[in-house]
Amino acid sequence: MPKVKIDGFEVDVPEGTTILQAARQIGGDVVPPAMCYYSTLKGSGGKCRTCLVKVVKASEKDPRPLPKLVASCQQTVMEGMEVANISSEEVLNARRGVVEFLLANHPLDCPICDQAGECHLQDLAFEHGLATTRYEFERRTFEPIDIGPYIKLHMTRCILCYRCVHVANQLTEERVHGVINRGDHAEISTYIEKSIDNDFSGNVIDVCPVGALTDRTFRFKSRVWFLNPMDAHRECEKCSGRAVVWMYGGEIYRVTARKDQYGEVHDFICNTCRFDKKQVSDWVIEGPTHIDRHSVISQNHYENGAKVVR
User: How many other CB atoms are there within 10 angstroms of residue 37's CB atom?
Assistant: First the structure.
């Protein structure tokens, strides 16, 4: 098993492991951010460039550094490789530049966006973004459109991570949406007179790292930090039936798939569980979903139970 050192931390990983996967085995601040890579989606990664790292030692056999920064989600590790992530000022400067590019056409919709509070681009901009923009040109804009009975597309917010395309390829028999045009004119869209309408279409909402694809049934109903996410399950013929129900009091406002600490879904759920089962009686409530303590969603301290204020 190759041994790789990332920011001074050593880890043994299986052959073929990428730098990003190795960093996730270490955990903590060593893990580079990723906006397009998704461990459960084949072919994802290599598009957003937020996970760039510096390889200061290529391998034990060839100790020379790689001449350019590499995408950690694509570069596999070699025996004796040494990688710099947060310990490299060059990497941090490059990451700030990537974030600036991602925000070049992104609107300031956070106050009204349903993704606010669980948006990976918000987190990335907070950690690496600039307080002001240098972009002086007219930003490209799109009108929000409905691309199915449950999904609203805000193309202006899209960063073209391709996750929704990959999840449609992987979970559905016939993908009806994709990326059309090229360069600055590229956009997510459905084929002519088509809409996204299949039993697993709602999963494109879960994999979207920004607010480009949102749930029409939850639109403008509540901020996520006002809700209590609870792990729940039910018997389902189409999927695992394991989900997170977002509750306010005794009412379920929305249902999402369960995500790991990196915001990735491993058990995708069907539209029946997501959109049709909104009664508490439809679910077996297991208990509070663990939310990272740095997340704004965890600020209501619902995991600790009710506290009496005297």
Answer: 26
The C-alpha angle 256, 260, 266, rounded to 5 degrees, equals: 70
Instruction: Indicate the SS3 state at residue 201.
Output: coil
CB atoms within 10 A of CB 27: 11
Q: How confident is the model at residue 92 (pLDDT cuts 50, 70, 90)?
A: very high
C-alpha 73/C-alpha 46 separation (Å) is 7
pLDDT tens for each residue of 41-52: 999 999 999 999
Quickly tell me which residue has 């639109």 as its tokens: 219
- Domain coordinates of the chain in residue numbers? 3-102, 120-215, 224-302
* pTM attached to this predicted model: 0.87
Q: What fold characterizes domain 3-102?
A: Ubiquitin-like (UB roll) (3.10.20)
Strands 82-84 and 3-6: parallel
DSSP 26-92: H-GGGSPP-SS--TTSTT--SSS-TTEEEEEE--SS--PPPSS-EETTTPBP-TT-EEESTT-HHHH
120-215: CATH architecture: 2-Layer Sandwich (3.30)
Q: What letter represents residue 254's amino acid?
A: R
**CA-CA distances (angstroms) from residue 144 to 117, 154, 189?**
21, 5, 11
Give 86-95 contacts, CB < 8 A, sequence gap 24+.
Answer: 86/7, 86/29, 86/30, 87/7, 87/8, 88/53, 88/54, 88/56, 90/54, 91/52, 91/53, 91/54, 92/128, 94/52, 94/69, 95/33, 95/50, 95/52, 95/128
Interacting residues of 80 by C-beta distance below 8 A, sequence separation 6+:
2, 3, 4, 57, 59, 60, 61, 63
What one-letter code names the amino acid at 143?
E
Distances (CA, A) of 32 to 21, 45, 71, 84, 272: 10, 13, 10, 10, 35
